[in-house]
Amino acid sequence: MKKLLLACLFLLNLVLNAQITLGAGNTTVGTAPVSTYYGYSYVQQIFTKNEINANAAGNITGLKFYLNPSSVIANSSNWVIYLGTTSKTGFTSSSDWIPVSQLTQVFSGTVTNVNGVVTVVLPVPFAYNNLNNLIVAAEENAPGYDENGFANAFYNFGSAANSLLYYQSDNTNPNPLFPPNGVRDDQKSVITFNGLTANATIACPNVIYPVNNTSFVPLSPTIEWNAVSGATGYKVSLGTVPGGTDIINQQLVSTSSLLVPQTLTANTVYYLKVTALNAVGESQGCSNIMFRTAPGQPVNDECVNAITLTVNPNAVCASSVQGYTLGATGSGLVASPCYGNPDDDVWFKFVATAATHKISLTDIASVGTTFSEDLYFQVFSGSCGNLTSILCSDPASSLVSGLTVGATYYLRVYSYNGAGSNQSFTICVGSIPPPPANDACTGAISATNFPYSYTQLDASGATNNSGFLTTCTDGMNDGTWFSFVGNGGNFDIIVTMPSGSSFDPQVGVFTGSCGSLACVETEDDGGDGESEILTIPTISGTTYYVNVGHYDSSDNEMEDIFSINILTNTLGTESTVSTIRSKVKIYPNPFTDVLNISSVENIESATITDMSGKLIKTIENPTSLIHLQDLRSGVYILSLWMKDHKRQTIKIIKK
User: Pairing mode, if any, of strands 516-523 and 408-415?
Assistant: First the structure.
């Protein structure tokens, strides 16, 4: 009986003490599991099976997160946590959220900092199969933020690239059903999984650089991976075939990085494997990652070798071409009347099929030695050696008009900044579709079943009809229209753009009739490609008209592809989406003498610097009009210092 009792106590002790901790000892703060320095956040993290390194499937009974014992999280304590499994090892874009429908809500409530630990006990354990990677998602719903030395509070550690996706905002409490575009990162929360038992064999390292399946890797790269707890060393292998060791053959390394000892071949695929060592042995089941080295000089480095672009029949870029400026040289053609440094220009050409086309650069990524995603493009008529500039575009997407059908036009793409600044990108030429069926208020698409969802693929054909919508104080373009009938509850209207979009929409909601609209509310919180979320209380039986158009009320700019979702809360309780204040808008840009600035009540001061970083002007407590007639023509950086200690930076162009 005594032996049986001791055995039971031993097993009970194993169960009670079963836990796996990742990132132990790290004290760098970051945005996971929630962002404490912003009012609201939604964060998803991917922890790989190899990273967790459990000895078997098991039930996760709780989670622990770590921070300084003195950190305050009073305004960041209202959490909802979801768990799930996935085959993904990272997020592929800023909109690559794992749907909530594929996750399980395991906790909802208030958390506290107890001696540097936030402990979350799951009311119902989550069964982890130890076959897939694990998703940990958390939303923080308490308004306000915690200062904590002007930084986030929770401890993070460096992990696999793009294994974290987060959204944080003082303005918008995101709805996990339709989260806005976020930011990818490799800093995940130091975390403990209660209920799981660690494998006796040491875990595999996560390679931080190069990222799996990445391109444009330098020919003499430094390989980096995360430090594995308990590791006494690492083995590195690199080859030209999967599992190959012809470049590096299981080299023993004591740190978590290694400079490849020989110059690699350009535009070649390599396979890398890193394992960890401890007294027990070597980590098992570690995966190979693959990467491609940087290519040589682009084939379209000069105008005479311009790559031909196929003109798409609409604004959806089914036909596009990938390009890059790395390794390109200048063509000897000055930028004027455009801006930037065309020391790495590459060339394309197309035959016009209409008087107006849309040029778009998407999937822009920094691939140079200096991080920069600032691309510029210029369109020319004529022929190589006799070119006339007809369009300059710093925005990633612009309309070029006044074209002759059947004529060939050239365009060059270059990084805005100088040496070391290079990008890869995708380029396409689109056509403007006819006005959509819901171009006018009288043709509004009626939303009758909720949640309602619609993707407007032909938004670029929308017209401004009879002019700008100025019924609300903050005017906007007349874009495309939708309608619904109120039920006495709150309605959430959520507008999102595809990844890489540069469309900056505004949402307006109106009552009355199409010929006599009354403003209910309007929202223009986000910038280029960012979501807009608007919540309104409704009156049962009243028809509401929704317009999604470009935010500007003085220039008729083109709309672009977007998706609209309309949700209703029939009980009229507090909505899942809230808005506190709007993002500052600067217009016109380029400007002549005066800049208009919105939401000045949120701005403490403004500074203007030139492109070399030299301070030109400081403006304390700016008004809605900034007079800059004393500036010379050129490009400047306007920094707005907000009263909540945030900063917004905008590039402005003086004509």
Answer: unpaired
Task: Give the residue from 248, 264, 293 where a domain finishes.
Answer: 293
Counting the structural domains of the chain, the total is: 5
* Beta-strand relationship, 222-225 and 397-400: unpaired
At residue 8, the pLDDT reads 44
Residue with tokens 């949402």: 507
- Whole-model pTM: value is 0.66
Q: Which tens digit of pLDDT belongs to each residue from 14-24?
A: 445 699 999 98
| SS3 of residue 311 by DSSP | strand
Pairing of strands 214-217, 187-189: unpaired
Give me the long-range contacts of 600-606 (CB less than 8 A, separation at least 24): 600/624, 602/642, 602/643, 602/644, 603/640, 603/641, 603/642, 603/643, 604/641, 604/642, 604/643, 605/641, 606/638, 606/639, 606/640, 606/641
Q: In 10 A of CB 558, how many CB atoms?
A: 19
- The whole-number average pLDDT for the span 110-119 is 97
Task: State the CATH number of the domain containing residue 214.
Answer: 2.60.40.10
* 470, burial (CB in 10 Å: exposed 0-12, middle 13-18, buried 19+): exposed
Closest CA to 490 of 569, 578, 567: 569
Q: Give burial (CB, 10 Å; 0-12/13-18/19+) of 1.
A: exposed
